[in-house]
Amino acid sequence: MNTAYSKTVREAGYQPVVSPQAAERIREWHDAAVRTAKRDDGSGQTFVVLGKGLIVPSGVHQISGVEHLLGEAVLAEVRDGDRVLDMGTGSGINAILAASQGARVVAVDINPQAVLAAQDNVERSGLADRIDVQRGDLFSEVIGQFDLIIYEPHLRVPALDIQPARDVIAHEARSVATFVRDARQYFTDRGRMLFFVGPPPELPTLMELAADEHFTANLVAQEALIHDGHSVDYYAFRLLPNAPTIEIEGRRAGY
User: Fold this and answer.
1) Phi-psi category of 53—alpha, beta or left, where left has phi over 0 and alpha has psi -120 to 50?
2) Measured at the alpha carbon of residue 149, what is the angle toward residues 178 and 219, in degrees to the nearest 5?
3) What CATH number does domain 3-254 carry, 3.40.50.150, 3.30.470.20, 3.40.50.620, 3.30.300.30?
4) How far apart are CA 240 and CA 218, in angstroms?
5) Is the pLDDT of residue 218 over 50?
6) Distance CA 167, CA 18 (A)
7) Do residues 104 and 145 lie in contact, with contact meaning Cβ atoms separated by under 8 Å?
């Protein structure tokens, strides 16, 4: 294991690569998204993503201009008959896209408002017989193994109101580290992961995580959005688990 990495990402002393100024910009972008969402009449905002209609209430992770990146990766990746875990499902869009390709999906979110919104969107999609929406904190309630895990980490927006933005980003980085570390045991023998990266978690964090946990990371999509005059890159990666390595008499070997 990469000891230096363990002492940064996995322990409380982790400090984000992002500068304090950039962290505050991220807070401002999230605040603006929340203000926009709260302007609806309580019925939620309506979106269409890759042909799928959604209603997203204000308390649920909002649909962004790059939502299609991960969605297109899901459509390309899912095989008929796959068992899929959509972690942090939010509005349920990626669960719906996976089910539309013939998958059986477990969709998980810690936010009770997101669970209700996803259930409603799944019902409207006509795919409710293929999607089980559950409330849970990462893998706490997950049972079984999956051919594909979809993960789009979301910043805890309420926490941004009461904590320094860099502290929230650091916490999220540790949550991502825990997720990637624990994901391997939930894979079938053909398991793989699709992982979406925006401003947080930071790209260097994901790359080191992948290497440390013996994943090969391949970029499948990338797009930049302009926020307040700043160009921000978003990525979709495909992570494939490799055989871990051990030291045998000074040599590295797989097992």
Assistant:
1) beta
2) 90
3) 3.40.50.150
4) 8
5) yes
6) 11
7) no
Report pLDDT for 120. Answer: 95
Q: For residue 179, what are its two tokens?
A: 């997720």
239 alpha-carbon distance from chain centroid: 13
- Residue environment code for 114-136, b if the CB has 16+ CB neighbours within 10 A, otherwise e: bbbbbbbbbeebebeebbebeee
The residue ranking higher by pLDDT, 12 or 105, is 105
Taking alpha carbons only, the member of 30, 147, 175 closest to residue 88 is 175
Tokens 């309580």 found at: 42
* pLDDT band at 34; cut points 50, 70, 90: low
CA distance 217 to 21: 29
**Structure tokens given for 226:** 């302009």
Rounded Cα distance between 95 and 84, Å, is 8
Of the pLDDT bands very low, low, confident and very high (cuts 50, 70, 90), residue 234 is confident
Six token digits for residue 146 = 């999956």
Q: What is the pTM of this model?
A: 0.77
